[in-house]
Write a structure and sequence with these properties.
This protein is mostly beta strands and about 270 residues long. The protein folds into two domains: about 90 residues; about 140 residues, Sandwich (Immunoglobulin-like), CATH 2.60.40. Strands 3-2-1-5-6-4 form a six-stranded mixed β-sheet, with no helix packed on it. Strands 9-8-14-13-11-12 form a six-stranded mixed β-sheet, with no helix packed on it.
């Protein structure tokens, strides 16, 4: 009796398991088009750090409403400020999304178009020899951006945040601009337009009288552009442990008009 019963029981278990698997929720994978705005937005908790700058995206089925996506949220896609895109993406709606992240993922399939829509950049008409020579944009200076107030560097050239966590290598590290604009500000919408985006930074270094203009790109200026190699060598090889230098950035828009003044320290470990 048992020799017939056991195989039948195994078959029944297999059939039940198959039915349960068929009933289990599954990810929904679909190919959609998506427009990415040339302007950026601000992300908020629970899934994003409060005040973080982000992309504004409009999937084809969003009924004309913009959604907020992190700059790295579309796998394979690199966003540049001032560009408007139409993308073909693979969207996956997760059946069992993680508790601390979005229920959707996106992977770039192709860029249907990429259009530069920012106002044309203009050359500086006068030489900038001091802070007083920088003309500010209307309503500026304002409090829109923030940077870490201190970076530490050891003799091996390793760079660290104030909490001790490391940055990438000197050639790959970036000084990130964090958007801290209060959403109750009466000019909140206006301050996210192109004339109020930090396209450039004027760099005031304690090691030279030269005022340099560097490009911020998407998320902030590269560390190596703010602190060039000769200054970095001085910090790593000649400064003593505990010594500090103070750098100043005056953020500027596409017209090279000032937006905001920021300061940070470099401390030798």
């Amino acid at each position: 009796m048992n020799k017939f019963f056991i195989p039948i029981l195994l078959i029944c278990n297999f059939l039940v398991s198959g039915c349960l698997d068929d009933d289990a929720p599954k990810d929904i994978v679909e190919e959609i088009s998506m427009v990415i705005s040339s302007e950026t937005g601000i992300m908020y908790p629970p899934f994003f750090e409060e005040g973080a700058e982000c992309m504004l995206a409009m999937p084809e089925d969003s009924r004309g409403e913009w959604i907020h996506l992190g700059f790295n949220e579309i796998k394979g896609f690199t966003y540049e400020r001032g560009h408007e895109y139409e993308l073909l993406v693979i969207r996956t709606i997760l059946a069992n999304p993680p508790m601390d992240s979005s229920g959707k993922t996106y992977t770039l399939k192709s860029i249907l178009y990429d259009k530069l829509v920012v106002e044309p950049e203009v050359p500086i008409e006068k030489e900038i020899q001091s802070e007083d020579d920088i003309e500010y944009q209307e309503l500026c200076p304002f409090e829109k951006y923030a940077v870490e107030n201190e970076f530490t560097i050891n003799e091996d050239g390793n760079i660290f945040y104030p909490d001790g966590s490391p940055l990438p290598t000197y050639n790959n590290a970036r000084i990130y601009l964090k958007n801290i604009l209060d959403d109750t500000d009466l000019n909140w919408v206006k301050f996210h337009k192109i004339p109020y985006q930090a396209t450039y930074s004027y760099v005031f270094s304690p090691l030279t009288d030269e005022i340099r203009l560097v490009r911020n790109e998407t998320s902030g200026p590269m560390f190596k552009n703010v602190i060039p190699e000769d200054e970095f060598t001085y910090i790593t090889q000649e400064m003593k442990s505990g010594e500090e230098l103070k750098y100043t950035l005056i953020l500027a828009n596409v017209h090279k008009k000032g937006l905001q003044k920021l300061e940070f320290r470099i401390r030798k470990l």
